[in-house]
Amino acid sequence: MQLLVVLTRGGGRWGLARDAVREVVRQADGLAVATEEGLVRADAVLDVAAHLNVRPPGAVVARFWPGHCLGVAIHDGAPVVVVSPAALPPVLQAE
Amino acid sequence: MARASDTLPKSPIVGLLLMVAFGVIATTGLAIGMAHGTPSWVAYLVLPIGAALLVLYVVFAFLPHVGQVRTLGEMAAAATTLEQQLGQATSDLQAGDLVATLAHAQELPPRLATPLANAARALGALVQQIQNSSIEVAASGSTVNATASELASGSSQQAAGVVEITATMEELARTAAQIAANAASQAELAAQSEQSGDTGAAAVEEALHGVEEVQKRINGIADRADTLGARSKEIYRVLELITEIAQETHLLSLNATIEAAAAGEHGRRFSVVADEVRHLAQRSQESVASVRSLLDEFAGSIRATVVATEEGSKEAALVLERARSAAAAIAELRGALTHTARAAREISLATQQQRTASDQVVLTLKEVSQVIQRMAQGLKHFSVTSERLHQLALSIQLLTQSFRLDSPRSLKNLGERCAGEVGLRSGHWESLGPQMEEVVRQSPFVELAFVADMNGNIVASSANPEWVAEGTDTSAVTAGLNAKERPWFQAVVRDGRTVITPLYESLLTGQRCFTVASPARDARGVLIGVMGIDVNARSWTKI
Questions:
Q1: Which of chain A's residues have a Cβ under 8 Å away from the Cβ of B261?
Q2: Distance CA B190, CA A9 (A)
Q3: Closest CA in chain B for residue A16
Q4: Minimum CA–CA partner of A5 in chain B
Q5: Which ipTM was obtained for this model?
Q6: Is the dihedral of CA B65, B71, B73, B78 positive or negative?
C-alpha cells in the first residue's frame, strides 16, 4: 500500500509519494512540499491517503502528458495525478 | 344920425318937466278948489297956465326936431336891413352853421360883426375842442374796452387756471393723505419687521450656536472614528498574528499527519490528533477570515463614518458660514428696517405737513379764484361802462357835428363842400362817380357816398371796400330806394341846410351808421339834389 500526499495546485489535485516528502514548508505565496529533489509548490495539502488505487496512465494520457506521470488515482471523487518530484510539471515547480 | 341921437333925449325931459309942472299946478288948483267947496279963481287960473305950458312943450319939444323925424325914417330902413342881416346871421347861428354865420357877419357893421364873428369863432373852437375830446374819449374808451376785454379774457383764463390748480392741489392733498397713510402703514410694518428681524436674528444666533455644537460633536465623532480606525488596525494585526499562528499550526498538523502516516499503525492516534489540529487550524483560519470579513465591514463602516463625519463637518462649516452670513444679512436688514421705519415716519410726518400746506394752498386758491371771478365781473362791468362811454362820446360827436365848422372834421362842412362840387356838375350825373370814389378814398370813415336827384333817385354812389365786400353791387341796394321818403332828404329839401341823421342800421352793411345829407345847388342856387355821406359808427373816430 502506497502512501500519497495529496495536494492542490493550479486547480488540480496532485499526488506525491510519502516517502519522497520530507516536510511541508511555508512559502511567500503559499505552501511547498520539500523533497530530496527540491520544492514542490502547492496551494494546499489535502490529505495523506493510504488506500488510493493508483493506475498507470492510459496511452492517450501518456501521449499528451507533458511530464513524467507515475499514475492516476481517485480521491474523494476527484482525479489525482501522481507525479515524481524529479520530473515535476511546470505548475508544481518552484521558481 | 349922431346929431339926432344927441338931441333926442333932451325933448322928452323938457316935456316931462313941463308936464310935471302942469300936473303940480293942476293938482294944487284942484286941491284948493276942493278945500273951499267950490272952484276958486286959483283953479280957473291954473288950467290956462297948464294949457299954456302944454303949448310951450309942443313948441319947444317937437318943432325943432321935424328934420330929425325925417332922418329917423332913413334910420329905420337901415335898421331893417341890419335886422335882416343880423337875423340871417343869428339864423345861421341857430342852425349851427358857423361858416355861414361868419360869412353873414362880414356884412354887418364892425361893432356887430366883430363880436358876432368872435362869438362864432369861439363857439367853433369850443365845438372843435368838444369834437376832439369826444374822439379822444371814444379812443380811450375803445382802448379801455379792449384792455378790459383782454383782462377779462386773461382773468377768465386765470380763473380756469386757478380752478385747474385747485383741482390739482386737492388731488395732491388727497395723494399726500394717501402717502401719509401708506407711510404710516409702512412705518408700522417696518417696526413689525424690525421686531421680526430681532426675533430672526435671535433664532439665527441660536441656530448658529446649534450648528457650532453639531460641528463640535461631528468633530468628536470623527475623532472617535479615527480612534476606532486605529483600533481596527490593531485588530488586523492581531488577526494576522492569529492567522499566522493558525497557518503554522496547520502546517505543523500537515507535517504531523505526514509523519503519522509514515509511522503506520503506531502513528494512527497521532495522525488523528494531527488531523484534529489541522481541522482546528483550518477552522481558526476560517474564523479569522470571518472576523477579518466582519472587521473589513466594520472598518468600511468606520471609514464611511469618517467620510460622513468629514462631509458633515464640511456641511456644518458651510451651514455655519451661511448662518453667520444670514446673521450678518439679518443685522443689515434690521439696520435697513430701522432706517426704513425712521424714513417712513419722517415721510408720514412730511406728507401730513404737506397735506396741511396743500389744504391751506387750496383755501388760498379758492379765495384767489373768488377774487378773480369778482375781478372778471368787474371787468365785464368795466367793459360795458367803456362801451357806454364810447356811445356817449359818439352822441357828443353827433351833437357837435350839428355845427358846421370850417374844419376838416366838420361833416357838415364836408357835405357842403362835396355838395358844392356836385352842384358844379349839374346835369352831368354820370361824371359824379369818380367824385364819390374820391370822397370815399379820402374819408375812411365813410361807408357810402351818394347823390340823389330831386326825384329821390340815387344817381351816383361809391362804397368803401373796407366795409363792403369787394364786388358788391351797391346799386342793388340803392335801386329800390326812394330817397324822397327818407327823413334826411325831406329835411334837406325843407330847411335847405345840411342835416345829420340819428344812428340807424345801414341797408348796405347791416351795421349802425348815420347820414350827412347836404343840399346840392346849381350855379343859380336852385336845389338840384342831395349829397349823402353814410358814416359807419364803428369808424367815426377816424373823422
A1: 3, 18, 48, 50
A2: 86
A3: B258
A4: B258
A5: 0.85
A6: negative
* Residue B1 three-state SS: coil
CA B436 → CA B94, B501, B514, distances in Å? 30, 20, 17
pLDDT value, residue B15: 66
| Number of H-type helices and E-type strands within chain A | 1, 8
- Render pLDDT for B234-261 as a digit per residue (tens, 0 to 9): 988 988 898 888 888 888 888 888 888 8
Judged by CB atoms closer than 8 Å, whether chains meet at A31 and B251 is answered as: yes
Q: Using the beta-carbon criterion (under 8 Å), do A24 and B258 form an inter-chain contact?
A: yes
Q: How far apart are CA B392 and CA A90, in angstroms?
A: 156
- Is B242 in contact with B288 (CB distance < 8 Å)? yes
Contact check, Cβ <8 Å, A23/B255: yes
Residue A29's Cβ-count burial label (10 Å; 0-12, 13-18, 19+) is: exposed
Nearest CA in chain A to B275: A47
Query: How far off is chain A from B267, nearest CA to CA, in Å?
Result: 13
For residue B538, which of B453, B439, B467 has the smallest C-alpha distance? B467
CA A13, chain centre distance (Å): 7
Alpha-carbon distance values, B247 to B89, B273, B363 (Å): 181, 17, 115
Across B327-342, average pLDDT: 83
Mutate which: A2, A7, A23, A51, vs B, most B CBs within 10 A: A23
Give the distance, in angstroms, between the CA of residue B457 and the centroid of all CA atoms in the same chain: 52
Q: What are the residues of chain B with a beta carbon less than 8 Å away from any beta carbon of chain A? A: 247-248, 251, 254-255, 257-258, 260-262, 271
d(CA B45, CA B477): 95
Residues in chain B: 543
**pLDDT at position B516, please?**
92
- Of the two residues B431 and B12, the one the predictor is more confident about is B431
Residues of chain A found within 8 Å of residue B260, distances taken between Cβ atoms:
48
